[in-house]
Design a protein that fits this description.
3 copies of one chain form a homotrimer. In chain A, strand 22 and strand 23 form a beta hairpin. With about 350 residues, chain A is α/β, with parallel strands linked by helices. Chain A has 4 helices and 40 strands. Chain A is flat and about 100 Å long.
Chain lengths: ~350, ~350, ~350
C-alpha cells in the first residue's frame, strides 16, 4: 500500500508542512525510518532523534520543534499514527463466506459479509452480526450472540448463551463462558455448583490471547464497553469490569468484584472477591487488592494500600538498615550516659 | 424446566414450610428473585435481604429466621441450592455419537453413550468411558484413558498416554501432558531432557480454562481425587496435588512439589520445586512458598511464612513511620540529656 | 525399546564399568529402578541412594563413588541421561503426509517428510521446512515461515507473517503473533493501534503450553536462539529475549523490554516495559522488575533490587519486632535517666 503525503495528510486530517508529492509506503519508528516512510514524534524526549531521523515526513503536534522538516501537523500524533498504520498497513480481511469444513447448525443466522474460517463449529440458535470474522478453529456454542464488525481470531471458544458485542476483537485462545469456580463443600466433598449465568462482552472490547472470562453462577459476568484486556487475564464469575477499563497481562479478578469505569490494573495485579473499585482506580502492577477503594485512588503493594503509603512503607523498609544503626548508637550513648550518671551521682554523693 | 415446590422439596430432601403447589421456574439471588423463583439464605448476614426478598420460596437452615415465609428447610442450603440449579437449569447434554468431522483412530474404544463433537481427533489405542462428552476441537492423543461421565469442554488437549478419571470436568483450553520444563545445560546449551512420564487426573477432578498440567520426566504428575483447579493454573512435571485440594486461579506449582490432602492455595500464589505441603496447608493468595510446611499450617507473604508472623511483619512495616519518629525524638532527648549532663558535670566540677 | 548396556555405552560415549551384555529397557530414578533399568547419579547428595539402588547400571561422573557397581562413566551424567531417554523411550513420530482433514492453501510449500495433523489450517504463502511436525488443530496463518525439524504440538496458533526457526518445540496452546496491547487514548476512548510487526522465534527455542508472544507494533518481537520458555508466559510486543535465556512459568514481560543472553527469570516474575536486563541477569521468582539492571546482576523482591539488598531488607523486616522492643526499653531507660537527672540537678541545686 502506498500513497502521496498530500493524500495521507488529507485522510488523517493533518496539516502538511512541506512537499506533498512524495510517496509514503509505510510507518516506521524515528530511528528506522527511511525517506519513503512516515514517522511520528509524540514524546518531546525524542526531539533529537526526530531531528536526525531519515523519515520522509513526521507526524508532530508542534511544528516549531522540527524546523525545515516535512511534517504532518496534528493535535494527536499518536492517534494519527494509529490511523496511518490502518491506511498503509491494512490487515487483509478474509473473504466473506463459510468455509466448507466449518460445522454450522442449520438455524444459525449469519449477517451479511460474515467470514467463517476452517474447522469452526457453531451451535444451534446462534446469531452472528454483519461483517464479523470468525477465525479458524473457533468453537461457538448454542444461542450465542455475536455483534457486527467483530473479529474472533483463531481458536476462540464462546460457550452457550454468551453475548459478544460489536467491533470487539478477541485474540487467539480466548475462552468466554467456562464455568465459574464454585463448590459447596460438605464433609470434605466439593460439590459443583452449576454455573447457569452468562458472560456479556459489550461493544468495542478487546480481549488478549488465552484470556478467560467465566460465566456467572446466576446472572451475568460483564466486560463493559470499550474495556481493553491484555493476554492471560483471569476474570471470575459475576465480575463486572467497567467501561473503558484496562487490565494488563496476567491480571486476576476474583468472583463478584466490581470495577468502575476507567479502572486500570497493572500487569500481574490481583483483586480478591466481592470488592468494589471505584471509577478511575489505578492499581499498580503486581499489587494484591484485598479491600475496596474509592474512585480515583491509586493503590499498590501486597496487600494493596494507597500509593503514597506504599511508597512510604517501601522507602522505610529500605531505611531499616540505617534505623538499626541509629538505634545501636543511641543504645551505646545511653549506656555511656547511664555509667556517667552513676559517676556523677558518685561524685555528688562524695 | 419447572416444577412444583412440593416436588422440589422432595427431590432436595428438604422440609417444605408453606404452600407446595406453586410452580418454581428457576433459582435467583435474594435481591433478584420473583415469586416464581427459589432463592437461598446460607449466610446470616443476609437475613434482612431474605425478609424483603420477593422470592416464592427460600432454602434455609433455620426456619425461625424467616417467619411467615414459604421455605425449604435443609441442613445445607448452599448444597441444596446447587442441586436445585441442576434440576431447574439443566445443561443440555449433547446427543451420543461421533460427529462426522471427528477423526477417531480405528481401534479407539468408546463406551456407551459417548458424545464426540466436531473436529475432535483421537489417537490410536485410546479408550473413552461410558457417557463421557468430548467437546468440539479437542485433541486426544494415543493410548489415552478417559473415564466415564467425564466432560471435556471444547478445545482440550490430552497428550499421549495420559489418564483422566471418571466424573471429571475439564474446561476449555486445558492442556494435559505437555512436556515438563527440563533441560541439561552444558557449555551454554540447554539440551532437552525428554519427558517420558505421564499425567494422571483422578476421579471427580475439575480443571479450569487454559490450565496446564505437564507430564512427568519419569513417572507421574498426579492430580488427586476430588481436587478443584481454577483457570490458568500451572502444574509442573512430577507434582502431586493431594485429594480434595483447591488451587485458585493463576497458581503455579514448580516441579516435584507434593501437596497433601485438602491443601488450599489462593489466587496467584506460587510454590517452588521439591517441597512438601502437608494436609490442610492453607496458602494465602499471592504468596511465594519457598520451603515445606507441616500439615495444618496457614502461610502467607513473599517469602511465605506462618500467617501470624506475616501479619505481624506487615503490621510492623506499617508502624515503621511511627517507629522512626519515636527514634528521632529519643535521639533529641538523649542529646538534651547529654548536654545537660555536661552542664551538671560542669556544675559538679565548679 | 531395549538395548545392551555395551551398545548403550557406545551410543552415549560413556565408559562401561562391569558386564555389558545385560539388556536395558528404560531409565528410572535411583529409588524406582530395577535390574533392567539404567539410572543416574548427578548430585553427590544421592550417593547413598545410588549405593542401595537396584538399578542394573548407573550413569556417573566419578566411578570411585560407587565401587563394585555396573556403571556408565561420563563427564555429564545428566546430559547422558537425557540422551538415554531419547534412545530408550523414543517418542513415536507421526507419519509424514498431510491429513485429509487439514486445510492447506494451494501455494504452501511443505518440505520433505513434513507431517500435518488433522484439522490443521495453513494460509497462503506459508513455508514449512523438512521433517517438521504440525499437530492436530494448529492454525498457521498466511506468509508464515516454519523451519526444519520443528515440532508444533496440537492447537498452536501462528498468525500471519511470523517466523519460527528450526528444531523448535511449541507446546499445545501456544499463541504466536496475537496483537500487541497498544491503544491511543483520546477523550476516554482507547483507539486500537494496529500491530503490523511480526514475531521471530529463532532456532532451538522451546515455548511452553499456552504461552503468548505478541507481534510487534512495528518491527519484531524476538525470542533468541536456544531460549527456553515455560508454560503460561506472556511476552509483549517488541520484546527481545536474548539467546539461551530461560523464562520459568507465568513470567510476564512488558512491551519493548530487552533481555540479554542467558537471562534467567524465575516463576511468576514480571518486568515492566522499556527496560534492559544485561547478559546473565538472574531474576528471582515472583520479583517485579521496574528498572534496568547491568549484566550479571542477581535481583529479587517487589520492587526488584539487588539480591543481597533484598535479603537484607527481608531479614530486617523479620527483625522489626526485636527492634521495636529495643526501642521501647531504650525509651524507658531514657525516661529513668531523665527523672534521675532531675533528681541529680535537684541535689546539685540543693
Amino acid at each position: 500500500m502506498s500513497t502521496t503525503l498530500a493524500e495521507l495528510a488529507q485522510r488523517l486530517g493533518a496539516t502538511l508542512v512541506g512537499e506533498g508529492s512524495c510517496e509514503v509506503v509505510g510507518v516506521r519508528p524515528l530511528d528506522q525510518a527511511e525517506p519513503e516512510h512516515l514517522s511520528f514524534l509524540h514524546n518531546p524526549r525524542y526531539v533529537a532523534q526526530a531531528i536526525s531521523s531519515r523519515a520522509g515526513a513526521i507526524l508532530v503536534e508542534d511544528p516549531d520543534l522540527l524546523p525545515g522538516r516535512t511534517l504532518l501537523v496534528t493535535p494527536q500524533p499518536y492517534l494519527a499514527m494509529a490511523r496511518a498504520l490502518e491506511i498503509l498497513h491494512p490487515r487483509p480481511r478474509p473473504e466473506p463466506g463459510v468455509h466448507p469444513s466449518a460445522v454450522v447448525a442449520a438455524d444459525v443466522e449469519l449477517g451479511e459479509g460474515v467470514a467463517i474460517g476452517p474447522h469452526v463449529s457453531i451451535g444451534v440458535g446462534t446469531r452472528v452480526g454483519p461483517r464479523t470474522v470468525i477465525g479458524a478453529g473457533c468453537v461457538i456454542g448454542a444461542r450465542v450472540e455475536v455483534g457486527s464488525d467483530t473479529e474472533l481470531h483463531p481458536r476462540v471458544v464462546v460457550e452457550d448463551s454468551c453475548r459478544i458485542g460489536c467491533r470487539c476483537v478477541l485474540q487467539p485462545g480466548v475462552v468466554i463462558g467456562g464455568d465459574g469456580f464454585g463448590f459447596a463443600t460438605v464433609d470434605g466433598v466439593h460439590h459443583k455448583v452449576p454455573q447457569v449465568g452468562i458472560v456479556v462482552v459489550e461493544d468495542d472490547v478487546e480481549l488478549g490471547a488465552n484470556v478467560c472470562v467465566d460465566r456467572a453462577t446466576l446472572g451475568v459476568t460483564r466486560i463493559g464497553r470499550g474495556a481493553k484486556v491484555d493476554n492471560l487475564v483471569q476474570i471470575a464469575h459475576n465480575v463486572e469490569v467497567g467501561e473503558g477499563s484496562i487490565l494488563v497481562a496476567q491480571v486476576g479478578i476474583a468472583g463478584s468484584t466490581r470495577l468502575g469505569r476507567f479502572v486500570m490494573m497493572g500487569g500481574q495485579a490481583g483483586a480478591a472477591g466481592h470488592l468494589t473499585l471505584g471509577d478511575g482506580v489505578l492499581v499498580d502492577a503486581k499489587a494484591a487488592v484485598y479491600k475496596s477503594f474509592a474512585a480515583g485512588t491509586r493503590v499498590g503493594g501486597i496487600p494493596a494500600r494507597e500509593h503514597r503509603e506504599w511508597l512510604r512503607d517501601s522507602a522505610n523498609l529500605r531505611r531499616l538498615e540505617s534505623l538499626r544503626q541509629r538505634l545501636k548508637s543511641l543504645e551505646n550513648e545511653v549506656e555511656t550516659i547511664r555509667r556517667g550518671r552513676e559517676g556523677v551521682r558518685g561524685e555528688g554523693e562524695g
